[in-house]
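Thread: "does anyone have the structure for this chain?"

Original post by V.I.:
We have the sequence but no experimental structure in hand. Need at least a predicted one for the grant figures.
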Amino acid sequence: MMDLRFELPAGLGVDKLIASLDKFADVQLVLQEYCLRTYYDSFDWRLYQNEILCEFNRSRTASNLVLKNLQNGRVFATLETPEVPHRAGLLKAGKVRTTLETYLEPRALLPLCSLEYEAYHLLLRNEEKRIILRLLLEDYELLNSQLTLQPVRGFLKTAEHIAATLAEELGMKPLTRSPLDLALALEGRKPNDYSSKLKIDLDSSMRADLAVKFIFGALLKTMKLNEQGVIADLDSEFLHDFRVAVRRSRTGLSQLKDVLTADVTSYFADFFSWLGQVTGPTRDLDVYLAKFERYMLHLPADSHADIEPFLGLLQEKRAQNQRDLAEKLSSAKYRKTLTEWEHCLKSRSYPESTAAQCPDIKTLADRRIWKIYRRVVKEGRAITPHSPAENLHELRKTCKKLRYLIEFFQSLYPRQQVRKLIKQLKGLQDVLGDFQDLDVQIDYIDRCCKDNKGELPPATLRALDELIHQLTGQKARVRKHYQPAFDAFVQAKNQAVFKALFAGQQ
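Reply from O.Q.:
Generated one for you, C-alpha cells below.
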C-alpha cells in the first residue's frame, strides 16, 4: 500500500493535528524525537536521475541510511550505520550497498544538504484497540510541516477518508515535491544542477567572438566546479571532467584562434597545455587502476597473487602524482592565470571599430567543422594495416577536435542529424581510444618492469611479461576493428549529411 503524503499549511502544529485526528479514533503519540536528515548523491546526480533518494537519518535512538523511490517516497532498502562513507563499497554488504555500487561507481557518495526537524510518530486505534493508521509528522524549522499517512492492511478506505477530511478541514495539500527539492531551493539550488555534458545554446547570428567566449565561459565553469573535488581527491570523475574541460578549451583555442588576438591565444594555449601535462599522470594511473581487475582476467588464477606488488606500485605512484597535482592546482601560477582567463572572457574581443568585421558564429562553425571533418577523412583513408600506431593516435586527436567542435555548436544545427553524426563519430573514437589505451598501457607496464627490475619480485616480472603478451594480442585484435569503424563513419550518407550541414558556400 502506498503512503499518503501531504504538506501542512504554515503554522499548523502537532496539537491542532491531534485535535483533528481525535474525532476519528484514539490518538497515541508513540515517539517524539529530534532528527537530522542528510541527503546524499554523486556530484553528477546519478541516484536522482535513476529516481532514487538516498537519506541518512540520525536521531537520538538510531542512524540509518535509507533508499527511497523518488516518485512515491516508498522505502525499498535501509541499513543501520553510524556514518556514511564516501565509497559505497565500505558499507556493510546488503541491498543498500549493492544498489549504490550499481548506480554510483566510480563516483563518491557525497552529502547534498541537511534538514533538521522534530518527528512525531502517531497511531490511531479503534474501539477494539486495533491500529487503523500510522502517521508521521515532520515539523521542519525552515519548511512547512509534512505529514505521511501509512495505511494499515484492511483499513485503506479509512485512511483515504481521514486524509480527505483533513485536507478539507486543515488545508493540507498533496506533497508534489520531495523534501530534497525543497531543501535545495532554500540554498538556491535544484537537482541536476551539474552535468558533464556540454549544453550551450547559441544564436546563429551571434558575433563569433562573443559566442566563443560564451563557450569558453561554460568550460571554465566546469573546471571551477570540479576543481576542489580534484584537489580533495573525492573520486576519479572530478579529474576526468576537469581534464575534458581543459581539452575542450585547448581545442577551442587552436581551432577558433582567429576570434581572439594572437597574443591572448598563445598565452592561454600555453596555460591549458600546462594544465594538460600536470593532470595527465594522475588520470593515466586512474585508468590503469580502474582496469586492474580486467588485467587479472588475462592471467591464470595462480598468478594473481604474483601481480599484487605491481598494484601496490601503481597505487604508490598515483598517490605521489595526486599530491603533486593538488599542489599545482593550489599554486599562485594556477590561481593567477585562471583569474586572468576569467577577466579575458568578460572583456571585449574586438574594438567597436572592427566589430562589424567579425563573422557570425554560424559562418565560423561551418568553416571549422568542415575543415576538420575533411582532415579526419584524409588522415583516416591514409591508414593501412601496416601504418604505425602513431598514425592512429594522430587520427584520434583529430577526431576529438571534430567531436568537440560539433558539441560546441550543435545548437546551431538540426538536433537529430547532429546526434546521429556524433554517434557515428563516437563509434570510430571508441576503437581508436581502445587501441591507444592498450598501446600506452603496454608501454607503461614495460617501462615499470625495466625501471623497477630490482624492486619487483621475479614472479611479478614474469606475470607482467605474460600480461604484456596478452595485451599485445588484444591490441592486434582491436586494430582489426579500425577499418570497419572508419568505413561506417565515412559511408556515403554520412558524408552527404556533413556536406549539407557544414559545407555551406565553401
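V.I.: this helps a lot. Residues 15 and 505 are 75 Å apart (CA to CA).
O.Q.: and The chain has a mean pLDDT of 92.
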